[in-house]
Known about the structure:
This protein is mainly beta. Helices cover 10% and strands 42% of the residues. The protein has two domains: 1-29; 31-268, Sandwich (Jelly Rolls). The strands form two sheets. Strands 1, 4, 5, 7, 11, 12, 14, 15, 16 and 18 form a ten-stranded antiparallel β-sheet that branches.
Amino acid sequence: MKKLNCIILVLLAIFIYAGCSSTKSAQTSGAAGKTTQLFNGENFDGWYKWVEKRGKNIDPKNVFTIDKGLIRISGEEWGCITTNEEYSNYKLLVEFKWGDATYAPRLDRARDNGILVHSIGEDGAKDGIWMYSIEAQIIEGGTGDILVVGDGSPTFSATSPLQPKKPGVSGNFFMPGGEPITITGGRINWWGRDPAWKDVKDFRGAKDVEKPVGQWNKFEIIAAGDKLDYYLNGVLVNQAYNVKPSKGRIQIQSESAEMFVRKVEITPL
């Protein structure tokens, strides 16, 4: 009888522990399967602004505004909007399109922004602008690249399978089943990035999945544990695993190009 009571107590303890762990996870990312709108279409509730050389919520040039249900990122100054909360184990959907305006120092260069996930540490730790993070790149011809925006240490890293190296072609290109490489900085190009890519405005690659300027794109980032999958307009464009860190805040960048966002939603896995 005593042995049976001990077994019951052990099972009860395991049940209570599992329940507490589940609750903690739910508090981080919301109820499993329930989609939450991170952008409410009216204001920046749940977010704060960070502008280079200015700081938190100091935006005199209105780099980040909302008009007619859209977030407008002017690009005039570099910075980001950042979620107040941290997230892990989720699917993030961001719908975006490019505007016409560009600014120095990228006035005539490819339109460039990005989504930074798993953002941790201090605001502006990276170059006075970003939190340390893992980037889902948004740039003409290179949307879907994975960048490690860290301090160069293994604390911030990602592993991805690569295409075999080709003569005269530099860089790392994603390929399912390829030879893995771990990076602590730099990028993993999406599989179809044009080897002849040039940093010029309006660049289009032969295999680009991103739609032309002015048309809406759907960018999905699936963060499952320490794995990341990037889907652009329904196409898997990049993937990484053993990603460090594997949770954090979400940032959307301003980097000299006008961009509009109409949806930011997150669904816990």
